[in-house]
Fold:
Amino acid sequence: MSITLSAGAVPGPRKDPEVALALGRRRKRADLIVRTLCVLATLVGLVFLASILATLFYRGFEAMSLRVFTHVTAPPGSEGGLLNAIVGSLIQAVLGTAIGTPIGMLVGTYLAEYARESRFGNMVRFVSDILLSAPSILVGLFVYQILVLPFGGFSGWAGVAALAIIVIPVVVRTTEDMLQLIPNTLREAVIGLGSPKWKMIVFVCWKSAMSGIITGILLAVARVAGETAPLLFTSLGNNTWSTDLSKPMSSLPVTIYSFAGSPFEDWIALAWAGALLITLSVLLLNILARSLLRARK
Amino acid sequence: MPGPFFFLLTGRHSVSQAATASPPPPTRAARGAGNLGDTIFEWACRGAGIFVLLLLGAIIVELFIAGLPAFRAFGLGFITSTDWDPVQEVFGAGVSIYGTIVTALLSIVLAVPLAFGIAFYLTELAPVWLRRPVGTAIELLAAVPSIIYGMWGFFVIVPAFATHIQPTLIDTLGEVPGVGFLFQGAPFGTGIFTASFILAIMILPFIAATMRDVFEQVPPVYKESAYGLGATTWEVMKGVVIPYTRVSVVGGIMLGLGRALGETMAVTFVIGNANRISTSLFGPGNTIASLVALEFGESQEGSLKLASLLALGFILFVLSFVVLATSRYLLRSRLKA
Structure:
């Protein structure tokens, strides 16, 4: 009834109620189809994550044993573990983060506190964002050129430098974002009390953005802990126990890379154990960082 | 003693006073203690910014200089030549550039519909309590290290492709005239298509997260108006949200493309690593990053091969720089908001 009325009253192309109903049905159907496809797409994404985790847990736990943590890498057939790779990864990731974080924090502070709209600031922001997404293998090649070739060989320090370069843009982004969330009234209050600007930044801005900055650092550690390509050309790998940073140093990702591509069953098993270790730590760091950020909000 | 603001506030009176007796107002330079600290701190921050600029510049220059012997030896033909013969010392980037671009583009084709579906689901369809956990799970895909994708691809996806997916595609799509040649050949499981598939999963979270963020920035009033006119959810998406966010969506896709170009470890595991251009998508190939990762260990210091690999690195840098810069340009409105 109402359909005929409105169709009669309003001038328009579709006055026939039959046609209008059919059109309505078609629109509803299209909507339903798209909705279903979107749910399916989300499920597909989740299935990938589940499949990766399930494979890692299944193959990783099978290969996991105390030996992984107590023995160094050994030739196939002999009882070997991943101790040197784990320690090497820890040393390089921690040192790389320790070197990259202060630089990244200063750059982020510069962008948020000194150069918000300046031309130079925009340029730095642009370059930092490019570095954030640039292929990490190129960072490895670069460090090979400036630290490996001139200093006569692969070294742990070169690996640390490559990881530090990767850490910087991650910390820049989070530091700047977190500092920009701080209301300007807070800054004005501190300056109004007669404080110099650097004290305002260090004791007020950094302090109130601390949890966000820590989130950035955790994300940076998670990022470099899994990096393989830059370490291939810098710290290379080492099959014996070594904490000497001036010599080649092994790392979990590089060890996984060489073991997983080998034809030996026990090496492949060790690679899975290492893969499980690294993925678990990376995912835990990510979740920890997220919950820190959420607690702040 | 009146401070500097006293003079500003009291106008005329202050002028006469300042002109006669009272000492000049303490300027920034005379404040002393905090000032030196301010200068040092500001320059430390600016210096770090300059350092980042120099870093990017140094990467470009170093890679170019290191690759120069290859560019000298082969000229511009280096980019198009498909030779890679370490014995004859003849090197060309053609095959790996082709592989890099084809795998990256194909991964975009595979990832964009999925990413769009996920972003649409997360912003419009999912119940509110489900949005954060599902969103986090998708973002965690981005946190999984590249090497893990490589292992998973090699031990899970490659066998599945070899026994099920590729034989099916070869039997069905391989028979289609016109495009059939893309899906022919032996089902080894590895190859260009598998590499693109893994890449698609790796870039999926980046594209989906960007799309979700920009979809959320559409003013609710626009969507509500469309709903008020009787539009369905899909029509609101198609008629309001996508036109509003189009530029940023393309920016997000470019970001994914930039990531796909430089992925190394995952591709190295599954692409088959052969230096030839196959017509079939199931054929083996290589990318710039995978070729560098594989051949680097077998290159002598100062050899032409090493220079060629570094020249490849320079080309990859230029490629990803252009794509990432475009992405950032397209996403600039989102960055400002």
In short: Chain B has one domain: 94-336.
